[in-house]
């Protein structure tokens, strides 16, 4: 990136009301067949336009073509039976009905590559594409076949690597793996989680990111956050190993979270997508609030490695709120850019 402090969002943006029920996760589509294909592409165009109007520098599809950041990818794979469902505890936090792994997992065709090509045709700006991380995929399934979280994650990492290579060829500049599970299963992250992530990015020449957050602003997550105490030190468990990994960018939560900002020192040298927008509240940050989060991060991250971002995806928010938050992010980044160029 030539521009200092390039802004982006962590991933999902709200969908238009004609495509899916707003402010809902796993919201069913309102269109079917060819109308749904057209509708998803139109929504992607709108999401891109909204980012451009808001001044977002690194744009994405806003995840308009997927129902959910993990499930939609898994739906396209062999070996997972969506009619055979079991209730499991996701991220040690809340019960969910999930599909079963019943045989070897594989990808018979690309999942998001056509969508990425479509986005690439619409803009010359840098584009970021999000995929679920291997550990978070494993944590969203019941496994009858491998009966080993590590083995299943390794198989997913190989599949993700195939998809990532094709996304890169489609012109994606940054491929991001969403790993909220990294904030929960520390021993597994250090034993095999980061190794699986490195398998997923093997051979890639584009930039790679891992997004580790405290989740969407849904009740299960806000209830969980209340149990975490006054200092959220989860990042401390996984940052040292991530610092020595091949991942280029770490995307994390800052604004309004109880993450001690000095934990950023543990990933010194990495590029950091700093969450300066809280996705768990409808109140809009002021540009000055965004700027003060970025200034705090600048004590631990070199200016040319700091990427202002949102704490997490904004799919469950009203569209007007998401738009205003993206604009605040751009305005806050501009304040700090001016300060940096004046010194
Ligand atoms: Zn997130």
UniProtKB/TrEMBL annotation:
<dbReference type="InterPro" id="IPR002629">
    <property type="entry name" value="Met_Synth_C/arc"/>
</dbReference>
<dbReference type="InterPro" id="IPR016456">
    <property type="entry name" value="Met_Synthase_cat"/>
</dbReference>
<keyword id="KW-0862">Zinc</keyword>
<dbReference type="GO" id="GO:0032259">
    <property type="term" value="P:methylation"/>
</dbReference>
<dbReference type="GO" id="GO:0003871">
    <property type="term" value="F:5-methyltetrahydropteroyltriglutamate-homocysteine S-methyltransferase activity"/>
</dbReference>
<protein>
    <submittedName>
        <fullName>5-methyltetrahydropteroyltriglutamate--homocysteine methyltransferase</fullName>
        <ecNumber>2.1.1.14</ecNumber>
    </submittedName>
</protein>
<keyword id="KW-0489">Methyltransferase</keyword>
<dbReference type="GO" id="GO:0009086">
    <property type="term" value="P:methionine biosynthetic process"/>
</dbReference>
<keyword id="KW-0479">Metal-binding</keyword>
<dbReference type="GO" id="GO:0008270">
    <property type="term" value="F:zinc ion binding"/>
</dbReference>
<dbReference type="InterPro" id="IPR038071">
    <property type="entry name" value="UROD/MetE-like_sf"/>
</dbReference>
<feature type="domain" description="Cobalamin-independent methionine synthase MetE C-terminal/archaeal">
    <location>
        <begin position="6"/>
        <end position="330"/>
    </location>
</feature>
<dbReference type="Pfam" id="PF01717">
    <property type="entry name" value="Meth_synt_2"/>
</dbReference>
<keyword id="KW-0808">Transferase</keyword>
